Amino acid sequence: MSIVKTIAYMSTLIMAIVISWALTKSNIFLEGNTILALPWGIVTFVDLYIGFLYVGIWMVIREKLPNSILWIISLFFLGNLATSVFILYCIKDCGGDYKKFFLGKNISI
């Protein structure tokens, strides 16, 4: 579990730095149309949001409804930064138990 924890901490830090950098360089609301005008821009967004769908399903399975809704909202606004923070939360919560890592308190599923 320690390698997962290290990767999650590194991912969280990298995402926070890159997002902060991008926010100082450009405005996604102004440049979003340019990105979506490109075929690979569309592919990137479809790929990203399908990934969000899968992570969101995991969040709903693992967490009770009010918490999972908050996690999903943060996922759609913060992207994989929210995924990295969620993984860190799951690592802390599971105490090294992989089944609990994936299922939380819903281990009977």
* DSSP E strands, number: 0
Can you count the helices?
6
Helix content: over 70%
Reported for the largest beta sheet, the result is: none
| Count of individual domains | 1
Q: Order of SSEs, N→C?
A: HHHHHH
Termini separation comes to 22 Å
Radius of gyration: 16 Å
In terms of DSSP E residues, the strand content is under 5%
Structural class: mainly alpha
Question: Which parts are unreliable, with pLDDT below 50 for 5 consecutive residues or more?
Answer: none
Summed over residues and divided by their number, the pLDDT gives a mean of 91
Dominant shape = globular
Written account of the structure:
- By secondary structure, the protein is mainly alpha-helical.
- It has one domain.
- It is built from six helices and no strands.
- The longest helix is centred in the first third of the chain and has 24 residues.
- The radius of gyration is 16 Å and the shape is globular.
- The two termini are 22 Å apart.
- The relative contact order is 0.14.
- The mean pLDDT is 91.
Helix/strand layout:
Blueprint lengths: L1 H24 L2 H9 L2 H24 L2 H14 L1 H15 L3 H6 L6
Helix pairs in contact: 1-5, 3-4, 4-5
Concise overview:
With 109 residues, the protein is an all-alpha fold. Helix content is 84%, strand content 0%.
What descriptive keywords fit this protein?
109 residues; mainly alpha; 84% helix; globular
